[in-house]
Amino acid sequence: MNLLFANDRRGAYPASWYAETTPPLAPFAPLDGDRRADVCIVGGGYTGLSAALHLARAGLDTVLVEAHRVGFGASGRNGGQVGSGQRLHQDALEAMLGDGHAAKLWHLAEAARGLVSDLIRDHAIACDYRPGIVYADWSDRGTREAHAYAEKLRRDYDYDLVEPLTRDELHAIVGAPGYRGGVIDWGAGHLNPLAYALGLARAAAEAGAAIHETTLVERVDAGAVVVTDRGRIIADRVILAANGYLGGLDRRVAARVMPINNYMVATEPLGARAASVLSRDVAVADSRFVVNYFRLSPDGRLLFGGGESYGYRFPEDIRALVRKPMLQVFPQLKDVALTHAWGGTLAITRSRLPYLGTPAPGIYSASGFSGHGVAMATLAGRVLAEAVQGETEAFETFARLPCPPFPGGAALRAPLLALAMAWYALRDTVGL
Which of 188, 197, 290, 332 is deepest in the core (most CB within 10 A)? Predict the structure, then answer.
């Protein structure tokens, strides 16, 4: 079964609140027969679109192929949070990699957020960007650790945009009685992820990249030949930017990058009640291992994400799946209708750090952003574009990151991960 088609109709965006409210782009024509290119990019999400934009700007003949529509995958379905740093905290990275390598990753993450801001400004991308992400903790110990980490960032990284929040200060912003405190990062932000992806696609096309939608890549042959159901692209270099939808295009990458499914809902407009849920226009992510994340839409809906699964198929009742954690956070919303529910496939690595590599001569790959991909996937596209042109410093910083394969092979890794996640869910429940 192909994840590209397991849960979605070909060429159609999912029935999400984003797809319903975001002005669409006119479709890009499918590939029509064989052609040559300097670079062929597989995948029309943030990584592929950013790579296409930067390569086209540099004057390279660039072709991007997407099996569905640009922004179809996780790039157009996620919670829209543009976070600081990497998926792992700096103290964990220092212990794992040493202070020097950890510092390079911090500065690359800062460059990623800056790149998102620059692209939004330079290309007039109307994606409702707003500053501020609250990180809410379910325990007093977690709150103390979050406050200590804010101080570490100020002291060691000269980053003073993280504001500690006591329980009362957090509750003044987030109307969720279970949280014990947290922090707010004013350097981070949130946006409409599909609008951002479509803005990148428009910018890449205007820069000269050729984009072909509804063009399914069947395989990549030796010599950087991309074989699709619409024709072949004979390229000097190939960039694999399919993330959770990579499938069998490269088994070395697939062994280290595992697709998982995550889910979101949108409530009906909350009206005056919206201020009792979030009193400020910020996004929130909490300390559960399976993270709850949410924000308000411009029309006053709660956009809430929570719940994961590890098979190919989405559950039949996404609303029921996500309503459970939503009501754990906001029990006062038990009478509120859910008007939209959708799922998406992202990709994780065992280290929760992105996997960038060259799995074969002439082939570059970036994936496994582990829920931290709005900024990092955008940066990864630029990093791959630089590497194709011989500028490899940032690429090598990422390529040195540990990324062991998942145990169990293709048959057993999903069940093993499901068991591990069940253990962490139990820890969340009992407050460990």
Answer: 197
In which band, very low, low, confident or very high, does the pLDDT at 407 lie, cut at 50, 70 and 90? confident
Structure tokens at 23: 């002005």
pLDDT of 408 reads 66
Q: Which two tokens stand for residue 341?
A: 């529910």
402: closest CA among 46, 106, 105, 47? Answer: 105
* Token pair in block for residue 113: 């957020």
pTM (2 decimals)?
0.95
Query: Of 48, 97, 392, whose CA–CA distance to 210 is shortest?
Result: 48
Residues 63 and 36: their CA atoms lie apart, in Å, by 9
Task: Give how far Cα 420 sits from Cα of 253, 266, 289, 370, 416, Å.
Answer: 22, 29, 11, 16, 6
Contact status, residue 204 vs residue 56, Cβ threshold 8 Å: yes
With 0-12 / 13-18 / 19 or more C-beta atoms within 10 angstroms meaning exposed / middle / buried, residue 399 is middle
| 376 and 354 Cβ atoms separated by less than 8 Å | yes
User: pLDDT (tens digit, 9 = 90+) per residue, 309-336?
Assistant: 877 889 999 999 999 999 999 999 999 9
DSSP of 237-289: EEEE--GGG-TTS-HHHHHH-EEEEEEEEEESP-GGGHHHHBSSS-EEEES-S
Using the predicted structure, report yes or no on whether residue 421 has a pLDDT greater than 60.
Answer: no
Q: Which residues contact 98 (CB under 8 A, 6 or more apart)?
A: none
d(CA 115, CA 102): 20
Neighbouring-strand partners of residue 163: 184
β-bridge pairing 225-228 and 217-221: antiparallel
- pLDDT tens digits, one per residue of 142-160: 999 999 999 999 999 999 9
Tokens for 288, please give them.
């559960």
Q: Which two tokens stand for residue 35?
A: 């052609």
Whole-number Å distance between alpha carbons of 408 and 416: 7
Handedness of CA 351, 352, 354, 360 (dihedral sign): positive
C-alpha angle 394-396-399 in degrees, rounded to nearest 5: 115
> Residue 165 is inside which H or E element, if any?
strand 162-165
C-alpha–C-alpha distance, residues 189 and 402, integer Å: 28
Strand 210-212 relative to strand 355-360, pairing: unpaired
Question: What is the C-alpha R_g of the chain?
Answer: 21
Partners of 286 in beta bridges: 136
What residue ranges in 5-129 does DSSP mark as E strands? 35-42, 62-65, 81-82
